[in-house]
Structures are given as C-alpha cells and as structure tokens.
Amino acid sequence: MTETAIERGRRLSEQFSPGMEATLEARYGHLLPDMASSVVSYVYGQHYARPGLALRDRYLATIAALAAQGDQTAAQLKINIAAGLKAGLAQREIAEVIWQMALYGGLPASINALNTSIAVFSEQDALIG
Amino acid sequence: MTETAIERGRRLSEQFSPGMEATLEARYGHLLPDMASSVVSYVYGQHYARPGLALRDRYLATIAALAAQGDQTAAQLKINIAAGLKAGLAQREIAEVIWQMALYGGLPASINALNTSIAVFSEQDALIG
Amino acid sequence: MTETAIERGRRLSEQFSPGMEATLEARYGHLLPDMASSVVSYVYGQHYARPGLALRDRYLATIAALAAQGDQTAAQLKINIAAGLKAGLAQREIAEVIWQMALYGGLPASINALNTSIAVFSEQDALIG
Amino acid sequence: MTETAIERGRRLSEQFSPGMEATLEARYGHLLPDMASSVVSYVYGQHYARPGLALRDRYLATIAALAAQGDQTAAQLKINIAAGLKAGLAQREIAEVIWQMALYGGLPASINALNTSIAVFSEQDALIG
Amino acid sequence: MTETAIERGRRLSEQFSPGMEATLEARYGHLLPDMASSVVSYVYGQHYARPGLALRDRYLATIAALAAQGDQTAAQLKINIAAGLKAGLAQREIAEVIWQMALYGGLPASINALNTSIAVFSEQDALIG
Amino acid sequence: MTETAIERGRRLSEQFSPGMEATLEARYGHLLPDMASSVVSYVYGQHYARPGLALRDRYLATIAALAAQGDQTAAQLKINIAAGLKAGLAQREIAEVIWQMALYGGLPASINALNTSIAVFSEQDALIG
C-alpha cells in the first residue's frame, strides 16, 4: 500500500527535524488551523520525499539557497544544517557550499550564514564531545 | 609545483564553460581591464576548485541558488546547468532541485527556472540526438 | 462529504485560471511526475481555498507581493491579475495596489508591474469591447 | 478647500500610527532635515490617502509585501499590522495573508512574519483583555 | 522665493531625464491620477534635489543599487546611467561601480548590469560620434 | 615592481578596516582554509584597489547597495560606513545616500540602514568627542 503525502511527510520530518509538526501546531494552530499538517504534507511529503534527488543533496541545495538569501532566514538555516548533517553532509561540505554562495548572494549573506553554521556545528560538537 | 589560482581557474573554466575568459575579455575588457582574468581566478580558481566539496555538488548548489533568486539570472542559470550536466548531474536531479526551490524562493522563481532548464535540456538533447 | 485538497484545488484553479493543471502537466510532467497535481492541491486546495480571508483579498495580496518582487515574476503577475479581476477586483484597485508597492519594493519594481497590469487590462478590454 | 498632501498625510498617519512624524523627526531630523515631513506627505498623503482602494485593503497589501520580503522588515511589519487592525482587518485575515505569502516569498519569510504578527496580536490582546 | 517640491522636481527631471513627467502621465495617468506629478515631486523634488550630497554622487549610488538588484531593473538602470553621464560621471566610473557590485548583489546581477551599461554607452557614443 | 593582488589588498584592508584578515582567519580558517586571504586578495586587491573610481566613491556605492538590500547586512554596513568615513565621506553624505535608497530598496530597508548609520556615527563621535 502506498504511503500518502502526509504519512511520508511525517515519517521524514520526524526523522530529520523531530517535533516540527507539533511545534508548528502549538505556535500557529490557533490562528491557522491545518497549517502544521499542510507544511508537513507539502514540504516533506511532496518535496523532500520525492524520488530523483538524494535527500543529502536536497539539504545541500536548501542550505545553498538560504545562505544566498541572507541572514533573515537564519532560524531556518539552522534547522536545515542540523537536518543536513543527519542526512550525511559533512561540516566541511556545508561550510564550503555557504562560502561559495558569496558569488551569488553577495559576501554579507555568505559571511552571516557562515556564522550561523558555526553556531550549529558548536552545538553538535558539544553534544558529541 | 602548485598551480596558482589563475592556472587552476583557467583549467576548470575551460573544461566546464569553454571560452568564458575570452568572452568576458571581448565584451568587458575595453571598459574593465583585468576583469576577465579576475573572474576566472576568483570564481573558478578560488571557489569551484576548492577541495572539500565535489564539483558536481558545487554546481547543484549554484543551480539551487540561481533558481531561488528568480528569472533575472536566467543567462547564468543556463551556463551553470550546462556545466552541471558535464560535472555529472542528471537532468532529473536538476529539475528536482529547481522544483524544490519553490519552497524557498517562491513558486514564480521556481517555475521560471524550470523553463530555463527545459531550454537547456532541449539544446543538449538536440546535440546528442 | 468533505472535499479533499486536490478536489478543492481543482475546482478553484479551473474557475480562476482554467487549464492550469493541464498546462503544468504538459510542460513539466515528463521531468517532474506529480508536480502539476501537487501545485493544484497545495496552492489552490491548501492556500487559496482556506477560509478566513476572501478570495478577492487573496488575489489582492498576491498581486501586491509579486509587484514588490519586481519584473521577474511578470508571467505570474499576469495570471494573478486576470484571476483577481474574476474574483472581483477592479482595474483601479489593482493599479492602486501596485503603485503603493513603490514604497516597499522600490519604484522600478512598481513601474514594471504597472506595465504588466496595463497589458492585462488591454487584453481584457479587447475581449469585452 | 482641498487638503494638501502634508495635511492629508498628517491626518492619516496620526490616526493609524500616532506619533510617527514626531518620532521620525526626533530620530533622523538632525541628519536629514525635512525627511519626517517628506515621509508623512508622500507615504500617507500621496499613497495611503489616495482614493481607488480602501485603506483596509492598502494595509492588507502592505502586510503581504512585507511578509514576502522577509524578517528584515519586522519593525515595519509590526507598525503596519497594528495600523491594519485599526483599519478593520481581523487577526485571522492578517494571519491568513501572511501564511499565503509562503507561496511567493518562501516558507522562512512567511514563518518569521507569522511570529511577528503573533507578537503584535499578544500586545493588542493584553491591552484589551 | 523658495521653489516648491514640484517646481524643484520638474526643473531637475527635465534637465536629467527630459520628458519623464509627460511620459508617466501618458502611460499611467488614466489609471492613476496625479501619479506622474507625485513621482516628480517626491523623487526629484524631495530626494535628488536635496542638499548634502552632490547630484553626481546620487546617480552613482542609484546605479550601484540598481546593479545590485539585478536585471529586472534594466529599464530604470538605463535611465539613470544616461542621467548620471549628464551629471558628470565617466563611463569608466559607471562600469567600475557596476563591477564592484558583484561583491554585494552577486556575479549574475553585476554582469547583467554591465551589459545594460554597454548598451547605453553605445547609444551615447553613436550620438556623439 | 608591481604589487600583487594580495599585497594591494592587505595594504588597503589594513588601512580602512584594520584587522580584517586576522579576524576572518580566526573565525573561519579552521573550516575554510585560505578563505581569509582570498577575501582580502579579491575584495580589496581586485575590486577596491582598482583604478577608475575613487575609493571614497567605492564606499559610497557599497553603502548604497547594502542600504537597499536591507537590514540583514547591518554588520557589513557598519564596517563600510566606518571605512567610508576614513575614505572621506561626510556623515551627512552617508545619511543622504541611505535615505535616497528608500526609492529603490523600499522604505523599511532605508529606515533600518539609517538606524545602523546613526549607531556608527555615535561611536565615532564618542571617540572624537
């Protein structure tokens, strides 16, 4: 039996960003009914779970785009760097891709995203260390 | 003996985007002396040639960022899709990463970039076919 | 019986932008299976069909956002202006909201979007006249 | 007798964002003489006070555009959400329009703007409650 | 007797971009009454005519910003490059400032703006030659 | 004997933003070997040190672009305002150029950048006073 979009989405989001649907529901559910499940179903079930591109590559691409968009997506960049590490990206690969974005999103965007990545790496290293 | 940045950059740009330095020099050299070699040395010699991230991944990241930035980078997106195919990306992978960017750069940016990718794929398929 | 997201989405997209799912499928289906239905289900079924904000207001908001984002979304702005007129917006209201966007997206973005709106209005007036 | 732009602007800005001209003058007047009155005259007198689009709709459009532009306009988004509530927008309508902007400005921009709206709503509810 | 904003604006816009107010009125006046005079009064009368920064510097800054914003402002970049040349900027200075914007708006934006500048320079040189 | 790009870059960056290369190396060197010298060589050696546009004008252009890009480049705007003052820009000129950017990057971006400039001016005045 085929998984539905929401089932695929929940499986994936719980694996890579555990607690996301519950957090969205708690924060926004009173204002926007069904928004949390809609995010999980669409973002994870209908994008990240698609075949045709490895999950590790999907996180690499997201990190690149958020880095190029600049510091205002720092909160989401943190979430996607953490998930990208789980999906198999190395810290060095993440730093390299962010630094390359200086070519496309400008130096300030890239430098600010590097600072965000270093913050995530420190938290991760503290957990492991 | 270690290659210099300009040597590395020329080797790489000639391999993936042949004729780029000559084109830049012909178009912009009369207004901006040294600009062409500066691009090749910096972009290819000091970014794309860096260790720590595979070239195929670098093109994937660039395609993602340009797709999220929207249609005004269509000319550069074409160049980087063509180079990305040479670096080992599949057409499907490129289409998938562009479509995923609807989440971060908005639907219009993603749709416009898909149109650009289809134009490049058609040219490539015509060459091969 | 409750409509599903894809049912709601199809009903709405056929009413306001007829032929959209078929067009998306024809253009992108060979590269991105399920993308067309995913757009209709998410954009129309899970956003535009939501209660809590009138459809006319949703199109007004989309026109505002696309105008502020600048000329690279011209194709999508045309589609949403045409749909907005069907949803009850007056030409004058659309022109006013685009012009107001000069305050937030800058003058060039606003002027370019005005040009796009005038093109849509001319087509519509030609149909009616 | 017709109001001038600065008269219309002052009437409107005092009604919806009381104290704005004085605040601008106090903060920026020493560096930029006449800037405060220029803002009030242009933004409120020559945009928001224009006929052809209801004030409630103008605030809806501004909230949409600022949400799509992302978190760096959070301070201005707060001001315009507060003014929009006075102009007749419901909290739910504001939340809906911001959430819809995920389609055009990307998910991170929309989520960050939702957080800003919730902060404004809490302040308002505290005043009323 | 002091000039009013609209008088200053008309004097300046006629000198640097002759015919602008009439063009705006002809294109947009039927949809947006008073918009043309509002642009001239605000943009030229209340910004470009301000003391404290030389007009040549104001055009340099505008060219920089439009170059960094990317190709979708090409029409406005052309107008401001032509005006900047009248205000005393050299072609070389304009090319240099656009090229520098590669650092802040990304390479694609800068390259596209260089192409726009070369188109304006060619027209100007044809007139002079 | 001609200076190399890295020599020119170091001379310039030390003069206008002293300690920058060391700071970059300390922060990012462990993740991105050679990044610090690459920035100094490219940004300062191959852009700011170019002939054809005065250094004071280059900083003016950078301040304009960063102001138009909005608040997320605040850290870099501070650095470039401080450097621009050393390169001969007056506080008033900087405030004027930032305010003018309201026309191109929108009002919120301009207002936020004015706040950043005032913070830098206060620090500078405290040092001098």
UniProtKB/TrEMBL annotation, chains A, B, C, D, E, F:
GO terms for molecular function: peroxiredoxin activity. Gene3D superfamilies: AhpD-like. Residues 33-115 form the Carboxymuconolactone decarboxylase-like domain. It comes from the Bacteria. InterPro entries: 4CMD/NDH-1_regulator, AhpD-like, CMD-like. Transmembrane segments: none annotated. This is Carboxymuconolactone decarboxylase family protein. It comes from Pseudooceanicola albus.
